[in-house]
Write a structure and sequence with these properties.
Strands 2, 4, 5, 6, 9, 10 and 11 form a 7-stranded mixed sheet that branches. By secondary structure, the protein is mainly beta. The chain contains no helices and 11 strands.
Length: about 130
């Protein structure tokens, strides 16, 4: 069983920055892709970013490209999401997720169904 714990959420003004971090308890962390998603009340969980096992390949939603950066530290079993130039529309609960399926394509990593474990979420609120 893998446990994912997110941290780093909070309240920030538009234009500000936050860094989210997700710690995994899984011993296979370094072998699989990780992702970040976000969700607002009444809406589906949306893809934000994903990173392959080595950290050399990343994927981003168009809405965050150029503003958010996903990274991972396989020695520490952590994945971070650095968010710059935040906008009110970035307000959501952010979830990290771990994929346990080898060779999952980049397109597939944009879908929640490709992930096996999820964190409890952390709230990000951006005020205008």
């Amino acid at each position: 069983q893998v446990q994912l714990v997110e941290s780093g959420g909070g309240l920030v003004q538009a234009g500000g920055s936050l860094r989210l971090s997700c710690a995994s308890s899984g011993r296979t962390f370094s072998s699989y892709a990780m992702g970040w998603f976000r969700q607002t009340p009444g809406k589906e969980r949306d893809f934000v970013a994903a990173i392959k096992w080595s950290g050399s390949t990343t994927y981003y939603a168009d809405s965050v490209k150029g503003r958010f950066t996903i990274s991972r530290d396989n020695a520490k079993n952590t994945v971070d999401l650095r968010m710059n130039n935040l906008k009110p529309e970035d307000t959501a609960v952010y979830y990290c997720a771990q994929n346990l399926r080898p060779n999952t394509s980049g397109i597939s990593l944009m879908f929640p169904s490709s992930y096996n474990y999820w964190g409890q979420g952390t709230q990000v609120t951006v005020s205008s």
